[in-house]
Amino acid sequence: MEKNLKLIWDFRGPTAKQTAEHHEIHLKEYSTAQNLTLTTTGTMDISELYSIAYMIVTPTEMPEVRDALKPHRGQYAE
């Protein structure tokens, strides 16, 4: 069984949390518009000045999503 992938966008600075939350809205919109298999998105606060937004995708959908949305990094989803 293939592991799903977590595509991550990093945001830093005093508005990192708000920016990550806003970015997640667009990730959800993209997921719906493209009829992606998985619709898991979220945000996480790493510190007061560092937050991330993420989207979980299948390995087969990853190249299309990566090329369209340009995440900063990715890792296997847990």
Automatic annotation (TrEMBL):
Protein name: Uncharacterized protein
Native source organism of the sequence: Gangjinia marincola
